[in-house]
Every structure is written in structure tokens, then in C-alpha cells.
């Protein structure tokens, strides 16, 4: 049996058991946190931080959570909107004039957040994603693939640069700086968009799925083949120092389950966690206003998109390449976060769902 460390409320025993089962089945390492009312009822971890299984996963191990990072970038935009500094119904070009090129004058900020802007594919070299000005200039010059707002296609890498440049233009700070100053810092959350060298010793690199290697490329579970001209992002990119240091606000966040759950508890708890107000209740509700419902052209499946979050019945959240996931249930005032360094093929990966369902066993006990 896998050794699970950390703490948990007795009502939530199913959660560490679920994590242990994943490790017993062969996963390298992982952490799970469940927060209710902004407080941890589960904070557990186990396994190893390295593929050779020589470094135990520790309390403060950090891993790249890939697209779970999008939920952190969305929080930044929601904070600015809540303060009246950003109008999500305004044209992007109001804040970023160069973006109006190539017929994009009608693209609204909410189109960026809801994957409906028509700019889903990164078509530049991988090296350019580490250069903020080059990446945003490329996207500003690009023509949309569809009428903005008329369709959705998951902007897996591009969304972070698009939303992030709006945040930079409005706030005068990079996404990583704004996030650290206004959200992660006040909440004491160990999550980073742009990771400094002082944290390198804590990082657990991503481990490819069985029979895969560092050339393993990102893909959607049911989506079409990579569009012609789109640049594949490979595991060797996500594990590189350049990726770690860069601010890639759709994909390069580093944290653990505890920090992810703490941060997203802002939305589960009407904007205030541990006495720190990040959003108003109305600001939280803004996140779940449906912007699109239908087939996503890149994911290849039906989706409902809010402002920066996927909507799933009464819950919302998002997952990352490789398996990490966050789920927010405002009715239960609960957040479940699962962070892992062990990748699996997207079509065969139900680990996050299993963790979420195990958390609901505890919630039912709280309500009894």
C-alpha cells in the first residue's frame, strides 16, 4: 500500500484512499486537497517527485499543472473586472490597440476568456512562447479563424497570452506579478506563474505516460488531429527551465493541490477566504455566466464555457495536460484539487473525476 502523508478529516477518508489507489496502480506521485468554507479538510500527498522514484513527494513539492493555470489567470481578470478597471464586454482593442489588426476589432474581452475569439492555435516556434513581446505581437497580427463569439475552440496555449496582455495593459504589471501581488500573496498561496530558481529544488518534473518519452505531445481527449501549421508542445518543453521561468499564463503555473484549492476557494466562498477579500459575490458570479454552449472545435466534444472556466452542471473548474484538475462547487462551498506529475493519455484518464467523487462522500457526511 502506498504511504500517504498529510492530514484529513475522518469524514473524508475516501480521498486519501483514492490517492493511495492511484499510486498503488503505478502513478509516480501526487497531492490532493479538499477545502470547505475556505479551510482544508483534506491535504495529503504521496509517491515520488522524480521519475526514478528516488525523491519522495514532500509537503511543499511543486509541479507544473499546465492548463489548471488558466483558472489562476482568469482570477486575475475577474479581480480587475470586479474593480471596474476591466470591462469584459469591451473590445480587446480598447486596452490593446494593436490587437484590432486583421479584422479583430470586434473581439471582446469575454471572447478571450471563453475560447470564442477565433485564435485557438499557436503557430510560432516553441522558443517564441518564452518571449512575451514576440508572442503577443504574433497574436495581435493574426486573423481569427471564425467570427468571434460565434464558435468555441479551446485556446490551449494562446488564451494566456491574450488575456495576459490585457491584464498587463490594464494593470501595468505582468500576469505573474499581478497574480503574486493581488491574489497569491495576500492568501499565502504557494503557486507561481513564472518560477524563480530558488524553487527549482522543489519541482517534480512531469513523467510521461507508460511507453511514452519526452517527445510526448499535448492533445485533446476527443479532438481532431493537430491543425496544419499549429506547433506541437512536447513534454520536453514543459519540463524545460525556459518553460519554468517564462510566464505562459495558459499553461506554465507551478503549485500543489493545497495552493490550487486555497486560491480557487475564493470562488467557492463568495470572494473571501480566511478574512481576505479577493472578489465581491457579484464578481464570483461573473465567472459562471455562460458564454458558449455547444461543440468545441478543438476539444471535439460538447462544452459550456464561462469566463475562464468550464461549466459542468452546478460546478465549474478545469483540468491540465497530464491529469491535474480543480473543481469548484459553490453550493457546497467546496474546492477539490488534484495535482500529479504522472501523465496519462487524455482519453484514458479519469483520475480527477475519481478524486472529486471521493470528496463528495465526505461532503454528504458533513451535511448529515
In words, what does this structure look like?
The structure is a single chain. The relative contact order is 0.20. With 368 residues, the chain is of the alpha+beta class. A hairpin with a 4-residue loop joins strand 9 and strand 10. The model has no long low-confidence stretch (mean pLDDT 95). Helix 1 packs antiparallel against helix 12, helix 2 packs across helix 7 and helix 2 packs across helix 11. The chain contains twelve helices and 14 strands. Strands 1-3-2-14-13-12-11 form a seven-stranded antiparallel sheet, with helices on both faces. The chain has a three-stranded antiparallel sheet with strand order 4-6-5.
- Report the principal-axis shape: globular
Which residues sit in consecutive blocks of at least 5 with pLDDT less than 50?
Answer: none
Instruction: Provide the helix percentage.
Output: 25-40%
Radius of gyration: 19 Å
Count of DSSP helices? 12
The number of E-state strands comes to 14
Strand order of the largest sheet: 1-3-2-14-13-12-11
Query: First CA to last CA: what distance?
Result: 31 Å
Largest sheet: 7 strands, antiparallel
What are the secondary-structure elements, in order, as H or E? EHEEEHHHHHHEHHEHEEHEEEEEEH
| Overall mean confidence score, pLDDT | 95
Secondary-structure-based class equals alpha+beta
Strand content: 15-25%
Amino acid at each position: 500500500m502506498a504511504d500517504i502523508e498529510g492530514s484529513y478529516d475522518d469524514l473524508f477518508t475516501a480521498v486519501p484512499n483514492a490517492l493511495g489507489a492511484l499510486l498503488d496502480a503505478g502513478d509516480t506521485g501526487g497531492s490532493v486537497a479538499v477545502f470547505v468554507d475556505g479551510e482544508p479538510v483534506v491535504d495529503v500527498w504521496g509517491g515520488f517527485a522524480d521519475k526514478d522514484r528516488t525523491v519522495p513527494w514532500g509537503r511543499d513539492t511543486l509541479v507544473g499543472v499546465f492548463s489548471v493555470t488558466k483558472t489562476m489567470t482568469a482570477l486575475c481578470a475577474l479581480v480587475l473586472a470586479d474593480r471596474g478597471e476591466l470591462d469584459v464586454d469591451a473590445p480587446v482593442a480598447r486596452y490593446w490597440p494593436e490587437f484590432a489588426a486583421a479584422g479583430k476589432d470586434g473581439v471582446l474581452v469575454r471572447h478571450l476568456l471563453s475560447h470564442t475569439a477565433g485564435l485557438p492555435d499557436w503557430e510560432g516556434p516553441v522558443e517564441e512562447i518564452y518571449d512575451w513581446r514576440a508572442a503577443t505581437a504574433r497574436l495581435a497580427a493574426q486573423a481569427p479563424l471564425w467570427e468571434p463569439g460565434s464558435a468555441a475552440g479551446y485556446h490551449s496555449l494562446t488564451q494566456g497570452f491574450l488575456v495576459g496582455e490585457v491584464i498587463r495593459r490594464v494593470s501595468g504589471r505582468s500576469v505573474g506579478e499581478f497574480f503574486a501581488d493581488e491574489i497569491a500573496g495576500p492568501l499565502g498561496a504557494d503557486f507561481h506563474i513564472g518560477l524563480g530558481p530558488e524553487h527549482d529544488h522543489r519541482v517534480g518534473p512531469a513523467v510521461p505516460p507508460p511507453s511514452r518519452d519526452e517527445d510526448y505531445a499535448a492533445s485533446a481527449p476527443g479532438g481532431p488531429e493537430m491543425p496544419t501549421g499549429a506547433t506541437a508542445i512536447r513534454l520536453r518543453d514543459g519540463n524545460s527551465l525556459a518553460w519554468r521561468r517564462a510566464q505562459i499564463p495558459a499553461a506554465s503555473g507551478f503549485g500543489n493541490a493545497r495552493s490550487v484549492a486555497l486560491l480557487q476557494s475564493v470562488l467557492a466562498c463568495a470572494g473571501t477566504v480566511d478574512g481576505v477579500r479577493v472578489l465581491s459575490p457579484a464578481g464570483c458570479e461573473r465567472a459562471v455566466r455562460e458564454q458558449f454552449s455547444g461543440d468545441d472545435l478543438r476539444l471535439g466534444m460538447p462544452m459550456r464555457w464561462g469566463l475562464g472556466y468550464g461549466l459542468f452542471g452546478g460546478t465549474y473548474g478545469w483540468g491540465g495536460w497530464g491529469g491535474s484538475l480543480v473543481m469548484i462547487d459553490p453550493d457546497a462551498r467546496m474546492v477539490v484539487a488534484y495535482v500529479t506529475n504522472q501523465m496519462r493519455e487524455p482519453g484514458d484518464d479519469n483520475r480527477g473525476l475519481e478524486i472529486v467523487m471521493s470528496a463528495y462522500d465526505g461532503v454528504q457526511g458533513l451535511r448529515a
